[in-house]
Amino acid sequence: MNWKNKWKKELNSVVPKLSDTVLNTPTEKVEIKSERVKSRRKFISFGALSFAAVLVLTLVVGFYLLQPPTVPETVFAVEINPAAAFVLDKNDKVKSVTAINSDADVILSSEENLNEIIGKSANQAVEKFVDSAAKYGYIDLSDITGQTTLAAVRISSCGAKNFESLRASVESFLSGKGIPSVVFTQKVEEIEFCDIIGIEKEQGVKLVDTVKNSPVLYAEKNIDENNITEKFHAYGNELLARISDEHLKKSIEEYLQTEIFNISQYVENIKGLLDIEKNSRIEHLGKYLQFEILNKDNEISKDKLDEKHREILDQNGSFNDFWNDRKNNGKK
Q1: Is 149 contained in some domain?
Q2: Of the four listed, 12, 219, 228, 309, which is most buried by Cβ atoms within 10 Å?
Q3: What's the helix, strand, coil split of the chain in %, to 5?
Q4: Domain count along the chain
Q5: How many whole angstroms from its chain centre is CA 179?
């Protein structure tokens, strides 16, 4: 017997013989998991989630960074003699306009004028306002061929927005019409701005909301159901004092006999009075101002305008002092 068979015989004698039951019992498969593998899988899962979170955050932040910056609504005032406050929306379009004085009512009572102001850029809206002021005789051009006193336009604001481009636009517009002018801007505190536009702002209410919610016409301010008839006649009497034409005065006196029943009718009747004044101004003042026939031949060069500006600064110290001097002397 060789050594292999001898070794096998000896091994069988030592190892006990298994029964058939044990031999036929199926073995259970045991899954062996490596702690290292499990740890690695956890690490990969956490890393994937972190990367996804960073990616989402990057996309969200990037989206907002690419959006145009939010521009707040802005309010500014334009004073010639007619004076008005304008509210610009977030797209720099005129959202609302309100008269600061009764002269501005003549311009803003016209639906045609309002349609060319509301929804337009600041430059377009203010040019229309200034254009109407000149056509209605509020800018004196009677000495346009001689020693003309410059028209003065003041643009006031109290926010961060710079209105220098608007100043240049108005100045260029007037120069192109042959109207020498001083157009200047000023930034003031909110309390001074409220004083300029003649409003009282409630505590906690934004200035822009106060102006935006103000009535369009100066004649609409401070009226209620108890005093509308009185206000209507007071406004009509003020108009009579400004008009010298007897025929026109008679028309106004007849119009003042209209009965007033509510605020809405009051506003409509005020617009009727203002329409009479507007047409009268165009007929009796506009033709003397020759505004319609001005052309490029009358255009004022920038050098000539700069020279006039230097003279004003030498005499007055500042454009605002020049403005106040004219205002105190009742001339614009």
Answers
A1: yes
A2: 219
A3: 55, 10, 35
A4: 1
A5: 28
- Amino acid sitting at position 14: V
CB 218 within 8 A of CB 99: yes
Domain that holds residue 189: 74-216+295-328
- The answer to whether residue 6 sits within a structural domain is no
Residue 117: closest CA among 103, 130, 135: 130
d(CA 129, CA 172): 15
**Distance (Å, whole) CA 136 – CA 289:** 9
- Closest CA relative to residue 251, chosen from 281, 283, 273, 235: 273
User: Which residues, given as ranges, of the chain have pLDDT below 50?
Assistant: 7, 22, 32, 37, 43-44, 60-61, 64, 68, 143-146, 287-288, 291-295
The burial class, CB within 10 Å (0-12 / 13-18 / 19+), for 63 is: exposed
CA distance 250 to 237: 12
